[in-house]
Specification:
Largest sheet of chain A: 8 strands, parallel
Radius of gyration of chain A: 19 Å
Largest interface: A-F, 54 and 55 residues
Oligomer: homohexamer
Structural class of chain A: alpha/beta
Distance between the termini of chain A: 9 Å
Order of helices and strands of chain A: EHHEHEHEHEHHEHHEHEEEHH
Strand content of chain A: 5-15%
Strand order of the largest sheet of chain A: 1-2-3-4-5-6-7-8
Chain lengths: 327, 327, 327, 327, 327, 327
Amino acid sequence: MIIDIHGHTVAPPQVYEFQARLLGSRGYPFDKFPQISDEQINQPLKRVVDLLDSVGTDLQLISPRPYLAMHSIQPAGVVHKWTEFVNNIIAQQVKLHPTRFRGVAGLPQSPGADIRDCIPELKRAVQELGFVGCQLNPDPMEGGYPEPPGLGTEYWYPLYEALVELDVPMLIHSAACCSPRESYTLHFINEESIAIMSLLDSKVFEDFPTLKVVVSHTGGAIPFHMGRFRAWRHRSGGEDFDVAIKKLYFDTVNYSKEALELAFKVLGSDNLLFGTENPGTGSVMNPHTGRTYDDLKPIIDSIEFLTEEDRRKVYEENAKRLYKLEV
Amino acid sequence: MIIDIHGHTVAPPQVYEFQARLLGSRGYPFDKFPQISDEQINQPLKRVVDLLDSVGTDLQLISPRPYLAMHSIQPAGVVHKWTEFVNNIIAQQVKLHPTRFRGVAGLPQSPGADIRDCIPELKRAVQELGFVGCQLNPDPMEGGYPEPPGLGTEYWYPLYEALVELDVPMLIHSAACCSPRESYTLHFINEESIAIMSLLDSKVFEDFPTLKVVVSHTGGAIPFHMGRFRAWRHRSGGEDFDVAIKKLYFDTVNYSKEALELAFKVLGSDNLLFGTENPGTGSVMNPHTGRTYDDLKPIIDSIEFLTEEDRRKVYEENAKRLYKLEV
Amino acid sequence: MIIDIHGHTVAPPQVYEFQARLLGSRGYPFDKFPQISDEQINQPLKRVVDLLDSVGTDLQLISPRPYLAMHSIQPAGVVHKWTEFVNNIIAQQVKLHPTRFRGVAGLPQSPGADIRDCIPELKRAVQELGFVGCQLNPDPMEGGYPEPPGLGTEYWYPLYEALVELDVPMLIHSAACCSPRESYTLHFINEESIAIMSLLDSKVFEDFPTLKVVVSHTGGAIPFHMGRFRAWRHRSGGEDFDVAIKKLYFDTVNYSKEALELAFKVLGSDNLLFGTENPGTGSVMNPHTGRTYDDLKPIIDSIEFLTEEDRRKVYEENAKRLYKLEV
Amino acid sequence: MIIDIHGHTVAPPQVYEFQARLLGSRGYPFDKFPQISDEQINQPLKRVVDLLDSVGTDLQLISPRPYLAMHSIQPAGVVHKWTEFVNNIIAQQVKLHPTRFRGVAGLPQSPGADIRDCIPELKRAVQELGFVGCQLNPDPMEGGYPEPPGLGTEYWYPLYEALVELDVPMLIHSAACCSPRESYTLHFINEESIAIMSLLDSKVFEDFPTLKVVVSHTGGAIPFHMGRFRAWRHRSGGEDFDVAIKKLYFDTVNYSKEALELAFKVLGSDNLLFGTENPGTGSVMNPHTGRTYDDLKPIIDSIEFLTEEDRRKVYEENAKRLYKLEV
Amino acid sequence: MIIDIHGHTVAPPQVYEFQARLLGSRGYPFDKFPQISDEQINQPLKRVVDLLDSVGTDLQLISPRPYLAMHSIQPAGVVHKWTEFVNNIIAQQVKLHPTRFRGVAGLPQSPGADIRDCIPELKRAVQELGFVGCQLNPDPMEGGYPEPPGLGTEYWYPLYEALVELDVPMLIHSAACCSPRESYTLHFINEESIAIMSLLDSKVFEDFPTLKVVVSHTGGAIPFHMGRFRAWRHRSGGEDFDVAIKKLYFDTVNYSKEALELAFKVLGSDNLLFGTENPGTGSVMNPHTGRTYDDLKPIIDSIEFLTEEDRRKVYEENAKRLYKLEV
Amino acid sequence: MIIDIHGHTVAPPQVYEFQARLLGSRGYPFDKFPQISDEQINQPLKRVVDLLDSVGTDLQLISPRPYLAMHSIQPAGVVHKWTEFVNNIIAQQVKLHPTRFRGVAGLPQSPGADIRDCIPELKRAVQELGFVGCQLNPDPMEGGYPEPPGLGTEYWYPLYEALVELDVPMLIHSAACCSPRESYTLHFINEESIAIMSLLDSKVFEDFPTLKVVVSHTGGAIPFHMGRFRAWRHRSGGEDFDVAIKKLYFDTVNYSKEALELAFKVLGSDNLLFGTENPGTGSVMNPHTGRTYDDLKPIIDSIEFLTEEDRRKVYEENAKRLYKLEV
């Protein structure tokens, strides 16, 4: 069984029409969520199902598309309404294709707000909508100022408590980026590097030993710069960096074979989960392979040093265990 | 002939899907504008045509829907792309129904930017797309800080020069409002009041005697507070306020009869243009009349003190003259 | 009996000499309030009494002149001292002419400060000085940034509690305006519109059913745009806007007959109170009538559709009831 | 002949009534300056003349009272109008008592504005009103942020050019102070210290060798800390500090004998000018002497080490030469 | 016995190498304090001992060099580490020369932080390192914005409580100055003036009658402007300023004889403590005396009006009593 | 011959003592640079020479240690003096060991300042001190706000012009990081990723085809995420990303073999230059190899797929060509 833990919702344009109105009105006045019919929902979704079939994915975990999260838009009420609405859309999608999708919740994060404000929506998503995890944006300011506290600080503890209590993982994934010199897609990578270091230089895993954290995009820049942080750790006398990094999980959303090989060598098959972000950035034809960049299974299948057990873990078992998937 | 000078584009949801992506990516990277097919465009538009038929409007001038203008979103490139795209959509709509619509351009205004940055798009709209005027937002900061210079200041002069040169009117209409205590719809009203006073307390009409300015929504609060500003003027010794206000034009987008009566008394039929903003805020059934609030023709028809000539001016002649409509 | 609920204190120049010194020193050091003699006080005041006689007003409620309130001047101690001083001057004036004036308190509002800081002065004014109400500035920032919370938010609740407990009304009236594009007199109008909508879109009257709110200047722009907000309400399904607006009271400080007619039609004689702000902005001769703009009684007398009962309510009874005047 | 170079205007309360209105309206709208009658002007002024008689002063140079200058009030137009008005009042006062007063101009300084904006008013004061110098506030931000450029920077050069061209001195004197921990009177002292060091550590006197600068209040803290700055200079190898400081002039507004003695020893009688700021801060009875603190002539007369020539310079000759007084 | 209460540590360059690394890394990551050997420490220190011998000083109290305190550097952790490190260095120095030095602690002040954050380091210094007092910077923002609360406000009360409990004095001494128009050395003087006035205009000595405060540099500008503040006090009716100022102590760090004479006259020998800040700003040869500016004992010895008892107090007894020195 | 293009100066502690004084005084007053003797300079430097001998490096290019650059410290004069001083120290070091070192200049970058302010020091370093390149910090704000313009913008063009004219390369290397959630060492990586994308998404290499750019630390995260940016480029239709990235050069400062292998595969031996940053972050013993992490030659020697020619290019030829080294 092939489980892709990193997919984002593909919604019909009516969803974005509502987003436009919500942004335009800044939620004042606010009436009610529009009804998007199952038919409207299914129109783009069935193409995703076909896509999953074509690449051999059995189940995909889908979350709100991060770069559309509008976390930095003020006032915070806009973010709350938008997040709730998108989570509802995802629930509707899972209901339409219960064997192919599971929901991963967006959180209504707003810069400067108390992180506790996100917990009701997290609980609603998991307990009422049946979602299996959530997505966490380490930078709700979206590249602006002031920067949020690092993930290693106590600012985030109330959320970690809730996650531990619900026993669901969080997928670290930033959102848009307002900086004119940094695209959102590069911001993803940089924020993941910061998130990893902030968590590993903190007491978070002492305080929440059962917290489950998945880092998107094979961990930003960190696996490529292991030597730098190994030296750092040796110097300051902490735990080995190769040991520390195993407290985190990573997905395989990295579209080149040499990088995935490095990731497998450095992070290992116990800590990697199959993910493609398909359809998304990588859904363009690679002229050298004739397949899209995000069709990652053939690439992973071709990595020679992996065993069948390695692949089984990455494709299926790690995800089932972490997300407690009953499939 | 009935000409409604105040309509906003009704676009298919695909337009807003693009807006969402543009907002999410902040225009970095930017690929190209999506193609929206004539069929997609026409789906919501033919409902508008039916609507115009049902209320007896022959021609409607349509502009970008103001509260979706995103003027305050940074960086400015986002606003430029979005404005250009929406103007293109409007041109496509006019082409589909050339006897029923004319285009009024949005301008890519960005707070703090030089107003000259808007002139290329204004010229493109008028000279290449055949638009008959533009919409001006007196508050591109959208309720934020710092406030823009008043319309009476020289900040706006390069635009006024271009308008005079092109000989097209501008419709004063603000956009979204980011203040949590002021809805965008009330912001429209307040900004119109500020715009009128800033223009009339300035030398703009001395410097640009042929500038054509139309104020939305019957002029905000000013016609209702004429006494206050008449007294003000008497005190400081300027031109009579009743004379001064006639340098401006106003539309009839005000959904109550007693207010329209006051507007006709104070502003006069030479300075009022028929406008409804239909479909829009007023497109809800008035239980007392069985018609929508924005079905204004029956109301104007019922104002007893108006002559046929008054109505002809307001419904048709003022608009034809100001906008140089050839119909 | 004619009661004018909207007058502002006319103080001798010595009062402003103190204000200048207070502003210059920013209250550091502060010595003590200057003594203004009854004779000094009475010099300008007796001219006001003559004025009231000439227009037929029996009793005027007087409050601090709003545009001199200095609410946005930092530090807050300056505002506290100035407000206390002006309230004292008003008390001294009432004492000199006990049959002609009643005091309405200014509040020492400072942007960003806790609204509770105003309550001791409110209580002192009502309980010790015998004042019959207070004036509330919805924008102590005086057109600056950041904007204050809307009147519908819980920020203001401690004050509402105190008002309900004291059973006195508040008159909504903004102060100066620091924006170079908006005069204070227009700011009055815009702030009243925002205040009305913020209150009516909130739960304030559910939480404080006996709160008495009077809006200055016939309610800003709202009565002129009833149609817009009626449609709005119908759309979102709330209480009729015409019902909602009756929770508020309004004064007649609007210097044109057609506007007052509209106000009477829309707001009704149960919710309007006679007010003139005389002497003030309107105290200039209207060449068409030979009377000052703020001589409103002849205008109201001339509105044909009003009954004697209507006029009695507006001139006298509403004020007596709301302000619990014993005269 | 006794010339007091440091007096501030004593104006009737009507002047402050206008200031209050100007502040309240922020100059929008602005009508015209009120006429203050000679009689009103003279009422407080004749008490000053009596005062000068009683302490033996023949001629006093009077400037706007600094702590009322409102330099930091926005927008800048308020400052321009206020300054022009006060300079006019001073001109009217000089005209009333031409043998007893000379005018020293206030400048319409506004933080962040180009210093060139002050030059027209400086020229008007000197060339049209006959003033003999001006007052310069080194901190138009009045204790706020950001700090202005130091007096040694080129920001101020256009003003210095104008002063050299007009051949009139500037008196360094700060205005109000918005800091809650620093009174305006202490701010005077601190700003004078900063001004002296900024000028002496710069090339101003190389670039403007004929610039005439008088520092108020015996030079802030600098004469008391000569040793500190002598050592500083020796270390960095510049001109002797005792030589450098003689490029500046100082007045004697310091209300204790031991301090004046120190000032005479350190600054010398060629660089000190008699000044009292009377009436002002020091106009309170000193119980030990039975005279007011600002009655400085008896104190200076009692300093034993001064010669008659010293006193003549300080009382008369230095002022006559610097201000080119024809008396 | 000659006790110099105002010296600052002279540390080997290795200390500043650590400072550079701490600044560069902003304390992230932080490893551990470097070991500076006794030999390294002693290399510059023995030159100080020779210096003390040459000027006849028996004991010097040494504190961190204020202009290197880095109080305004963010984040606050940098300041905490740096302060702790320098206090340790001072303790090591005292240990090397126990008969010649005593430690005065730096405090890890950070702008905007709670002053309570400094108390653990204060207690460590006094109780564990044996320090006899601390240095307080009234402006941890170092000339930036916003200004800190005045020393008279309750912001500082927790520190005052701790000082009273520990029964040790604080020496008021500001640090660097980021303003381009004010050098740190002049900032010292201005901050001292502000500190004195803020304390004396407050209730601090009512609330903490046993608080011991020493002001550096003979009290900034205040002794030179006693007349100004005497008048001020008389006007507002408080305690005599000459009485009030005796609640504070002052050191003699003022490098000119005439100023020291003034200080002795105004402040008196009971309130002055011998201090030189040697080696420091004044350690440059005075060509007129052949001694360095900071060799103050010969100057004080030459002041004729001082008695032997005066000198004993200033050189020894006041310091012993205030700092509870057992020597 | 082995050339290490990425070394930073190892300076004696006296250099940091000067830095501390410069920071403390903020350059006001400024006297002169201290003389650091050749002996002092050589003490730490000869240890570096020994180090180079032990790892087999013949020549090292040395630049200022980036995290000590203080670029964000205000005012800018501090940065100018510090940079000039450090460049002088490097010149002195090169002079002491002319066969072992070459200088790479630091630039006095200050956030918000015109980049032209750096050109005189660049020219002095190259033309007078004989330096062979410079170091460029893409983030002189050091992690603060607002962010600088991206390297692809015209802000940087004057510097690029100067570099092209001088025909020397720039090494992209950020400095300190003030963010509490991001260490300077991780900031290096993130800034390199941003720099690469900003340059490659711009017209810089069209406008300056001969500009020579070396990116530190094997190019941040980009080589590890090639797939992401390949897809991105295909989507937007630009030049192949693998072609584009070859416009840049990269050094080998990456302390793990698997990452260097990836770098060689993706970037190729024509675009990589041997660099170690030794001594620095990696100078700690790797327990698995018995060598320090930054001893990179054995690692590169062990990469099996490299040819001798590959190694010769990377160790020697690329550096000689780019830096025009005559050795």
